[in-house]
């Protein structure tokens, strides 16, 4: 006769930890917000949105500078907010949206600025290439934390 005994204590502990992680998602949201900042920093460094190069600014061409980085204030203004239900990234600069989404600017809306999306999310809510995989990896790691130990 073959007899198999299964001790479910470890499984029950792991399942309990998984459920605890699923209820308290703030650590996961913190990780997601940090990754959104990292993606934004990469966009500023590479002057692109997920590898899609921005239209170079005339100032950057004339001064051998970088597009959207004349003073560095826009990049430095990136902030995050997190809770159990969201991870938010943005800027408090009044000119942040026009640079990200493009459009008419200046006195009497006399200048049209091209979109130079620096946040890893487009104006249509689309994540930039490879961002979804990176965020899912963070979410899964956060859910698995402490499971199986």
- Radius of gyration from the CA trace? 22 Å
Low-confidence regions: none
Give the % helix: 40-55%
- Alpha carbon gap, first and last residue: 33 Å
Mean pLDDT: 91
The main sheet orders its strands as 1-2
Question: What class do helices, strands and sheet pairing give?
Answer: alpha+beta
Quaternary organization: single chain
Q: Which percent range describes the beta-strand content?
A: 5-15%
> Topology as H/E string?
HHEEHHEEHEEH
Explain briefly what this protein structure is:
This protein has about 150 residues and is of the alpha+beta class. The model has no long low-confidence stretch (mean pLDDT about 90).
Brief descriptors of the model:
6 helices; two-stranded antiparallel sheet; alpha+beta; elongated; 149 residues
Can you put this structure into words, describing what you see?
The chain is of the alpha+beta class and 149 residues long. 44% of the residues lie in helices and 12% in strands. Strands 1-2 form a two-stranded antiparallel ribbon. The protein has a two-stranded antiparallel sheet with strand order 3-4. The chain has a two-stranded antiparallel sheet with strand order 5-6. Strand 3 and strand 4 form a beta hairpin. It is elongated. The two termini are 33 Å apart. The mean pLDDT is 91.
How would the blueprint of this fold be written?
Elements: H1 9-23, H2 26-46, E1 48-49, E2 52-53, H3 58-63, H4 73-76, E3 79-82, E4 87-90, H5 96-101, E5 103-105, E6 111-113, H6 131-144
Antiparallel strand pairs: 1-2, 3-4, 5-6
Helix pairs in contact: 2-6
